[in-house]
């Protein structure tokens, strides 16, 4: 029971860490293309899950402006 609980904590932390890394990379790509992002935009991106970040990253190539 304790072992399973610890494994679940580890998996949850790993998923959150991956999403944070993906969010950081997406922000870096956006800032490279558009310049410094508003804090509100960064905050929104930080709340995205991995699937949403993946979809947004794919759309980055067709985005003309950030507004």
Summarize the structure.
With about 70 residues, this protein is mainly α. It has helices at about 1-35, 40-45, 50-60.
Structure write-up:
The chain has 67 residues and is mostly helical. It contains 3 helices and no strands. The protein has helices at residues 2-34, 39-46, 50-59. Helix 1 (2-34) packs parallel to helix 3 (50-59). It is elongated and about 50 Å long. The mean pLDDT is 87.
Shape: elongated
Largest sheet: none
Number of beta-strand segments: 0
**What is the element string, with H for helices and E for strands?**
HHH
Amino- and carboxy-terminal Cα gap: 49 Å
**Residue-averaged pLDDT:** 87
Q: Calculate Rg over CA atoms.
A: 15 Å
What percent strand? under 5%
Low-confidence stretches: none
- Class per helix and strand makeup: mainly alpha
Helix content: over 70%
Instruction: State the helix count.
Output: 3
Secondary structure: elements and pairs:
Elements: H1 2-34, H2 39-46, H3 50-59
Helix pairs in contact: 1-3
Name a few traits of the molecule:
67 residues; mainly alpha; 3 helices; elongated
């Amino acid at each position: 029971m304790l072992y399973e609980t610890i494994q679940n904590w580890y998996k949850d932390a790993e998923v959150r860490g991956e999403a944070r890394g993906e969010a950081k990379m997406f922000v870096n790509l956006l800032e490279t293309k558009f310049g410094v992002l508003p804090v509100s935009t960064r905050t929104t991106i930080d709340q995205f899950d991995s699937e949403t970040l993946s979809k947004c990253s794919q759309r980055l190539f067709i985005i003309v402006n950030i507004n």
